[in-house]
Specification:
seven-stranded mixed sheet, globular, 4Fe-4S, metal-binding, nitrogen fixation, alpha/beta, iron-sulfur, binds iron/sulfur cluster, three-stranded antiparallel sheet
């Protein structure tokens, strides 16, 4: 398929068969997510822990929580039934790296059975510097970091607290630590040759005018793609930005912002904000066909 003009040819070689990055590939290759990562180490104002992480998945949706052993059974069953399966992602329902033992165990066990599967994960980035060497060493293909601000004063309006170094931290201190860790994690991964995509959630009146600055900061540190997702505002999944709640952007506002951003932003316009246990070609979700109670008893 054709390489978009703003994508580097060397990067395009690596992503052209990936259903999430190539408009063309998403018709031929399938991806699945397994929800093995329940915990999170920060609080986003737009998150309600009952539902999936908004980093990379549709907010307000509950996915089937799996142990690593259950996840491996599921991946093997899906690979047998969906020959297009090429990518396995861990994107929640919490933070993939806040649950690193489970994430790593799942990836290692799946790779042992399906050696050529591509692996990806998404994270808020708080503990990314601690795991960058292992991520690169395991040949994880892509990492997505959700970065909503590069100014701690704006970050503090989005993140009420983080849990870091055995302590809960709030306000500007929390936002400053998170930002510093996200930037360092991004630099460490790109220096080690891991492809890094940045997701930002567009929150009108909070970070919408600031996202071009985020775009420049992450491109300068080697992110190959910056994907802006709309805040999906629903009082039921908790938007705590103000007494009256927080609206999401209109489609026209989202498109106007995406047009202002450089560098592969257009590649991701077909991102569907899939749920954390999505299965199949993009635009379809066969997750309900592969719930645990429907899997064969053993696959080892
Ligand atoms: Fe929720 Fe994800 Fe934010 Fe954690 S990183 S608080 S799971 S949206
Ligand atoms: Fe791909 Fe977006 Fe779905 Fe992730 S959420 S699998 S990037 S389309």
């Amino acid at each position: 398929s054709a390489r978009p003009a703003d994508v580097d040819p060397a990067i395009w070689e690596k992503i052209k068969d990936h259903p999430c990055y190539s408009e063309e590939a998403h018709h031929y290759f399938a991806r699945m997510h397994v929800a093995v990562a329940p915990a999170c180490n920060i609080q986003c104002n737009y998150c309600n822990r009952k539902y999936d992480c908004s980093n990379e998945s549709r907010p307000g949706v509950v996915s089937e929580r799996l142990t690593p052993e259950e996840a491996v059974r599921k991946v093997v069953a899906v690979a047998a039934a969906v020959p297009e399966l090429s990518v396995l992602g861990i994107a929640g329902p919490g933070d993939a790296l806040a649950n690193w033992k489970k994430t790593r165990a799942t990836f290692e066990a799946v790779r042992a059975v399906i050696p050529d599967i591509k692996l990806c994960l998404s994270t808020n980035g708080l503990v990314l510097p601690d795991h960058a060497d292992e991520i690169a060493g395991m040949a994880i293909d892509h990492v997505t970091i959700t970065i909503n601000a590069v100014d701690p004063a704006i970050g503090a309006r989005i993140y009420p607290w983080i849990f870091f170094d055995h302590k809960r931290r709030t306000g500007l201190e929390a936002a400053t630590i998170l930002l510093e860790r996200q930037m360092r994690g991004l630099e460490m991964l790109t220096a080690r040759g891991v492809l890094v995509k940045i997701n930002s959630v567009m929150i009108p009146g909070i970070n919408d005018d600031h996202l071009p600055e985020v775009n420049r900061a992450v491109r300068a540190r080697g992110a190959f793609l910056h994907n802006v997702m709309p805040l999906i505002s629903d009082p039921a999944h908790g938007t705590h930005f103000g007494l009256t709640g927080q609206r999401g952007p209109t489609p026209a506002e989202l498109k106007a912002l995406q047009d202002r951003l450089d560098g592969g932003a257009k590649l991701m316009r077909h991102c569907r904000q899939c749920r954390a246990d999505a299965i199949g070609l993009l635009g379809e979700d066969r997750g309900q066909e592969f719930t645990l109670d429907r899997l064969p008893a053993a696959v080892t």
